[in-house]
Design brief:
heterodimer; A: alpha/beta; 6-stranded mixed beta sheet; 14 helices; globular; B: alpha+beta; 5-stranded mixed beta sheet; two-stranded antiparallel ribbon; 2 helices
Chain lengths: 294, 87
């Protein structure tokens, strides 16, 4: 690991990475051993590695899988759910499953086809749907925090995209912990300093089986484009991604960006009459409007 | 013939050139496609030839994770597993 100026054998790598993650959890006050953590899992390497590490560190965890019903010829959602279930069963962990088609009688693909937002950018619709369902599940479970497996490559790519656009509102919301409030569960990113390579190496060395295929909608994702450039940058200047992210956190702490709350809070949110989650519109929230317009 | 270290007499892993040339050429497999390369080539150089940025793939040889500091050996079948996801 040139960015850490460190070489480790497999045995000591498997001790080192969890210790690094725990250090980040404690330094950023993400959650404590008294909290039950709901881990959003997709069946991919990052979420399963995160769940494995949190469990190994002694945190009380449950998994949350959102079945979006994406097929696209490869039974993507069904396939990825199998990996999440297999991991949970092997480790004696509880996995909560929320199914879009069972609960709302529609898959993400079907929602995408009938909405302008979905047709133009299925990932944007997916993000809104998942955020809503994650929040709902986290509030219902009364967990201490909802943990997502956003890693350093994800965070650096988002940061680069938001910086290129100078999206100050989004730049103000990139911290690894978003506090909970009325209507919003506490959301944390314990893997924010772990690169995708480190996460994959951990999963491989631990013998974790993960979903090999990518989401079929992510093929033209801008994130891959940004990550490609960031990794070339990293190869030329080891540690560049981590410095980029760490210095961003310092800038956040120094008040470089305004409005650090969830946008709904900042704008005096009202509760959606259908689901009770905060919304700025005064009527149905974006998710409930999507369901009603079916 | 494999060379031994002058100091400790342990094998260095570096084989004589003629010996390397007569052996089965190493193969790097990426997403099901195979690329045949030259034994004795450093993996880092091989990845550069294949236009692969270090840190974006796990490098696996015989079920073991290795780094790009290694050198391709005759008969190697190296699997590169992508780690970068689209979101």
């Amino acid at each position: 690991m040139r960015h850490h100026r460190l070489s480790l054998c497999a045995e000591h790598y498997l001790e080192w990475l969890p210790a690094q993650v725990n250090r980040f959890i404690e330094k950023q006050n993400l959650f404590s051993k008294n909290d039950r953590v709901l881990v959003a899992v997709s069946g991919g390497k990052d979420s399963l590695a995160l769940w494995d590490i949190l469990t190994t560190l002694g945190y009380e965890t449950e998994g949350l899988y959102i079945d979006l019903g994406i097929d696209e010829g490869i039974a993507y959602s069904s396939h990825s759910k199998v990996y999440a279930e297999k991991f949970a069963n092997q480790h004696g962990l509880k996995l909560n499953i929320v199914s879009l088609s069972s609960d709302f009688h529609e898959t993400l693909t079907e929602m995408s086809m009938r909405t302008k937002r979905g047709r133009e950018n299925p990932c944007s619709l997916c993000g809104m749907v998942k955020r809503h369902l994650f929040n709902r599940a986290a509030l219902e479970s009364a967990c201490g925090a909802l943990a997502t497996a956003h890693n350093l490559d994800d965070e650096a790519a988002i940061l680069l995209a938001n910086t290129l656009e100078w999206s100050l509102e989004r730049l103000s919301r990139g911290q690894p912990a978003l506090p909970g409030s009325a209507g919003f569960a506490r959301k944390v990113k314990p893997f924010a300093r772990v690169s995708e390579f480190e996460s994959a190496a951990y999963a491989f060395l631990r013998g974790i089986a993960w979903m090999p295929e990518e989401c079929p909608f992510s093929k033209d994702s801008k994130q891959i484009y940004f990550k490609s450039y960031l990794n070339q940058w990293e190869d030329a200047m080891p540690g560049a991604k981590l410095r980029f992210y760490n210095n961003y956190l310092k800038a956040l702490d120094q008040g470089a960006f305004p409005n650090r709350q969830e946008p709904e809070l900042a704008l005096d949110a009202k509760a959606c009459p259908a689901c009770g989650q905060p919304t700025t519109t005064g009527g149905l929230c974006a998710f409930c409007r999507l369901i009603e317009e079916k | 013939m494999e060379r031994v270290c002058f100091v400790c007499r342990h094998p260095t892993g570096i084989k004589d050139k003629i010996h390397l040339m007569t052996q089965e050429k190493p193969v790097i497999r990426i997403r099901g496609r195979e690329h045949t390369l030259r034994a004795g080539m450093p993996l880092r150089k091989a990845m550069k030839i294949l236009n692969i940025t270090p840190g974006t793939y796990l490098i696996i040889r015989a079920g073991e994770l290795i780094t790009e500091d290694e050198v391709l050996q005759p008969g190697d079948v190296i699997e590169l597993a992508p780690v970068i996801s689209g979101g």
